[in-house]
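Table S2 (text version). Query chain:
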Amino acid sequence: MYGSRPFSGEGASLYLASGVTDPGPGAIVYRNHRIDTPRWLGTLRTDKTNRVASAAEPTDEITYDASALAGKVVRVQVRPYLDDVELETISGTKVITLDGSGDDATGVAGEMLLLDTELRDGGGVIIRTRYTPSLSGVQPTSFAAVRTAGPTSPASVTATYSDGFVFYDFEFTALSSASAYTFKITGTDGVTTTDLITGISVTVDTDGPPAPTGSIVAA
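Corresponding structure-token output:
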């Protein structure tokens, strides 16, 4: 009978693999289930995994010093356990990029999709987007539509992040007529700001789009 019981009680384990580039999810080694017959009981067996830290209930945080991994790309996963059994099926690993100081420099890794640019009268434009979050990187606290080129300098338009798959509109007003502007959309977690869409080009028209026309056809 083996004396090692890494999953006794209740808690969670932190697994980690690192490299100069992303080591991939397959680089993390977990503890495998094993059944030994009496024939093998006399053989010394060891398990080498990428489990670097753990926390037992009621502690709800796992602390790990990642200073030695500065400048590397890290794959991590947290797996809960209960009464000597570890949960093996759980959401995928997360990728973290550490800068030279060991700080998280991954940035916002979700996808922001440009849906439409809608011209309005009076020199207005609405930039319509959709954001899909990612398991990797950080989740944003807010987004901003930022003017990067154009004859005037309108203030950036911001939107607060809402959990999940959400649509975001950014409206600018009183831009210069018949002028070309370029915008970008950024996401920030309050520390790191990431460009999500760049090169959004519009030509403003203070008259706005033409009025709709139609006719009535007798049945």
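Notes on Table S2: Residues 111-203 form a domain with the Immunoglobulin-like fold (CATH 2.60.40.10). The chain has two domains: 10-97, 111-203.
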